[in-house]
Amino acid sequence: MVARGEIARFWSLESLHMVSSDGGTESAALVDDNGSEEDYSYEDLCQANPRYLQPGGEQLAINELISDGSVVCAEALWDHVTMDDQELGFKAGDVIQVLEASNKDWWWGRNEDKEAWFPASFVRLRVNQEEPSENSSSTQGEEQEEDAGKNRHKHSESKHQMRTNVIQEIMNTERVYIKHLKDICEGYIRQCRKHTGMFTVAQLATIFGNIEDIYKFQRKFLKDLEKQYNKEEPHLSEIGSCFLQHQEGFAIYSEYCNNHPGACAELSNLMKQGRYRHFFEACRLLQQMIDIAIDGFLLTPVQKICKYPLQLAELLKYTTQEHSDYSNIKAAYEAMKNVACLINERKRRLESIDKIARWQVSIVGWEGLDILDRSSELIHSGELTRITKHGKSQQRTFFLFDHQLVSCKKDLLRRDVLYYRGRTDMDGVELVDLEDGRDKDWNLNVRNAFKLVSKTTDEVHLFCAKKQEDKARWLQACGDERRRVQEDREMGMEISENQKKLAMLNAQKAGHGKSKGYSGCPVAPPHQSLHPLHQRHVTVPTSVPQQQVFALAEPKRKPSLFWHTFNKLTPFKK
């Protein structure tokens, strides 16, 4: 943490006070769109939800439960792809049993038959850790009937309590989230705008994206949630309609999540200079924010939008079909799941365009527009024989992207070098499957063949695969390409021009225009490759998690496996 003395030397603390247009100091209270102040001060939130706001609070609660012998489960917010044997890989939605949470960044857990470390920021703890007992032991006759009645009543009360727990988690985390958004907008953005000598308008747009729009949207959303929240009997709350009413508004998160990798890169560059580190720490102290760095605050919207489907899924689980909110909660869950899926897909495409850009740079003699001008995903690749009208065969390596098929030729001596040989517009052709035998149009005997026929001209492309199964994969891939193009159009899936240009610029800088190795598909990004052997130690993550694109830096060092074993064996552990 930066000492206050250093901050004072950087600037006068009074110069950061929030001054209104009439010269008076602004109130710390948040004013909503109707001019009324919000009911939740920082102190109120701390008293109501100490573990949501205090650093290490959640971690302490987990360890208390584990030490008491309780089974603590968490659900994955994102995929965690790893090549390190000491890390636990999982997919979004998987359930992980948390076995140790002494380290705030990396927890020890079990998934299926494996125990290993995993990043704590990738999961959400379940509110209800234990299932209500569906059945209970009973005696014979009247005692059995009486016990069954008591058990049903007890189970009903337990179900109500579990629904109450989830409702309260949704409400509490929403209030805390609003506080974090307020801190970002008032504590960071407002101060950055005052220091025009340090930040350009473009820099601030890159770092903070549309988070002010998210803040405005979430305030309205919380206001409607509060109206539907039953304070006396929380389990009777009907909040499903709020999610349905605002489901279109949640689409603004897509822009923020798409922008976030660029925000991390920009912020990382600034943080190399001491004056920026001091500036952001001064902003945090003056706003009286919790002890989290700015990159942690900027990650919260990404985490939040991924938590909604998990929260609603758990709420649906404890909402009976007779409950008046059941149908709305079910619809809300599907709606928020679709929102999260769309955002995850856009994020995956952003990662994909970096690979594709590096692939293009590795191709010798590339001609025409960049591949990213029209495409954002590699669907299939492999070798095919291309037949000309004159019966001449050409062995080529083809890459099928959305909207276009690229043809390359391997170097005769260096088989890892590819030369550009052309491309086909997939939007302008139709796929024709051919039976083995003589083709009437070309007067040739063909095997494992198919055609791409132009919709507007007489141009025809004839391809032959080596095996029947290879042909089947190409036919499937061509069908997938058309479906994905249609889905992208329906979902409004687009990658901005700036993101495409940035991907190509980074690829050109990395490649310096020279041919790179070829592996049959776009080269994998650095975070998916193994690190040097001297780094493969149990205490060091050997890969950056797939979703670490949303964080400012790589995960910190994992705690030693020795200490985990020692903690499990020590007789002094309480």
TrEMBL record:
Region called Disordered, residue ranges: 129-160
CDD domains: PH_Collybistin_ASEF, RhoGEF, SH3_ASEF
Domain annotation PH: ranges: 377-483
Domain SH3: 69-128
Subcellular location as annotated: Cell projection, Ruffle membrane; Cytoplasm
DH domain span: 162-346
Single GO MF annotation: guanyl-nucleotide exchange factor activity
Name of a matching Pfam family: RhoGEF
First-listed, main subcellular location of the protein, grouped into a coarse class: membrane
One Gene Ontology cellular component: cytoplasm
Superkingdom of origin: Eukaryota
Name listed for the protein in its UniProt record: Spermatogenesis-associated protein 13 isoform X1
Organism in which the protein naturally occurs: Ursus maritimus
